[in-house]
Amino acid sequence: MRIAPDLQTVPDLLRGRARTDPDRPFVRFRDRSLTYGEFDARTDALASGLTELGIEPGDVVSVFLPNCVEFLEAWFAIVKAGGVLGPVNPAYTGPEASYVIDHSEAVAVVTDARGADVLAGQRAGLRGLRSMIAVEAGSGDVRLAELARPGAAVPNPERAADDLAAILYTSGTTGKPKGAMLTHRNQLVNATQGAELVPLGPGDRVGMLLPLFHANAQIVTTLIPILIGCEIVMWERFSASGFWATVQELEPASLSAVPTILAAVLHAPGAPDGPTSLRYVICGAAPLSVELLNAFQDRFGIRILEGYGLTETSCISSINPFYGDRKAGSIGLPIRGQQMQIAGPNGEPAEPGEYGEIVIKGPNVMAGYLKNPEATDESIRNGWLHTGDVGYVDEDGYFFIADRSKDMIIRGGENIYPREIEEVLYAFDGVLECAVIGIPHEVRGEEVLAVLAPKPGVALDTEALAAHAAARLARYKLPISYELREELPKTATGKINKVPLREEFGSWTTVVATAST
User: What's the whole-model pTM score?
Assistant: First the structure.
């Protein structure tokens, strides 16, 4: 898939929309709203200020902020000045944030008072950092608003489609976070690929619920809306108890979510009995149980489009179509202009129904990992991105994920995929969240453990749950124990995080079976 000749960089996308629809609403957050024309002019003025501050083409500028209009302003001002966006998870501690900022060699960081406090003790170690730009008074070297130079010459850096637009750091669950280098072409192609699949038109509202430091919010709820001419309506923060009231207030036609959010709002206060403004919800980033998908769609009549993607593919790689067949439990069909296969043991394409690794090739695949040629060469081989996800494709071309290859449990020589067990457990009435992990066993190598959180007000009967699982799973797949928690640990994007659970239970050297084996 190619991008239009007049659309070579991310700023071109905004400028084109602002010329066509200058008075169309672009973004709304709290009591602040901007049209496309106003936002374009505002970010031009800020780009002039960044250039005056010394930002040069190719410089990385970090944005260490929660979702807010200022994040969007900083992002587009940075790329208009020729810089590279370096988003930082706003939940990071000082050492975590400083690693990302230092590793990317960011020359400036845009942040708020909380971010300034977090970085206060780290700044001496940030070798390339020259400027702290604050969005609030009383912190930083200069305020973002004070950088604006209305009427000044707009920067016109020489930037091409294959120049870097952003460096997004992966979650780092297997070591230090890696910086995925995304070009302007990567992001524009992926936005184009996604825009043709969603039932949105000019003037529709798109809800921004997921964090802007993440690829989904950048592609699905920013660039795609700009491409179509939608208005972005931003949540201040996610609250299950206030979710449906916010939907009623903001009236989004769509939003992106993760399974834990859907589970939390399924029975939340104020859940509607009739239609809402929502036509569909895109759900990805973590496995979505068939039970939850069906329960949500049946109750609200809102279509869930389960999809799949990675930071390394800019965001979207496959999705269940809004128009056409949607298969529960599937991550859908590959997007147009991108190849997606199941690779067998020797790298050859697997037959339908056969398990293998999901591999991807296309213009949306990253340029590589920053300063990490070894990881780049390991991930991208002969042009194919090796995702580390195990799955299969059916006769109709729909893809299904079994699990992460690193999450696979090997019990007595048998390969066990936690996703399969989790699907069974989610189907048991009263289960809100579950995570299946492997724990060490001195004889079998690993055993299966299930950690669960019940729905509010439910007392889970683990004996009945074990009987439910035993009726649906082979004996070797059955958990030896069911651990109950009020809630499971989450990542910043709301995905269930198995790492703390592995740390908690991985110290076991001997496991005493609590179920027959």
Answer: 0.83
